[in-house]
Design a protein that fits this description.
six-stranded mixed β-sheet; alpha/beta; two-stranded antiparallel sheet; 155 residues
Length: 155
């Protein structure tokens, strides 16, 4: 988790917020599109907990949410003690260390940008990364925990 704020930024100096329009595309949208609404709901809950309220007209802060989901490959290196040598013919065997795929998983990155609406100036940016669970209920738990931790880092 990473966060960076403008030098004089304090969330308590703001009263209202709203979101930029979301644009989404690709395969991740089909698989995780419903979760974007859940992320927004969690952001609203956490910001209201911090004393802000959502406003449709001229909010003090605009929030830009970004989500990237990438498939990652988990590998391990072969070991001479546990992995057999390769037969190369005429009673000769060879062994060499190599990377072997053992699994695939999705890694998600959520970025949150807070923009001072009147000045159109980025005042805070935070990023959270985590493995995306396949179980939808565990995914929602991870989103809730991640958004909560991210919002707590806002000064």
């Amino acid at each position: 988790m990473k966060a960076d704020a403008a030098g004089n930024f304090r969330l308590s100096d703001y009263q209202t917020f709203n979101f930029y329009e979301m644009e989404a595309s690709g395969n991740a949208l089909r698989a995780y599109g419903q979760q974007m609404d859940f992320i927004r709901t969690e952001m609203i809950r956490e910001l209201e907990r911090r004393g802000l309220r959502q406003a449709d007209e001229n909010p003090d802060l605009r929030i830009n949410l970004g989500v990237v989901i990438e498939e990652e490959v988990q590998t391990r290196e072969t070991n001479i003690l546990t992995d057999p040598p390769t037969y190369i013919g005429q009673r000769r065997y060879s062994w060499k260390s190599q990377e072997v795929e053992v699994g695939r998983y999705n890694e998600g990155t959520l970025s949150v940008d807070l923009v001072h609406n009147r000045r159109n100036e980025l005042v805070w940016q935070g990023v959270a990364e985590a493995v995306v669970p396949k179980d939808p209920s565990k995914l929602r738990e991870r989103i809730t925990a991640g958004v909560e931790k991210l919002v707590k880092r806002i000064p």
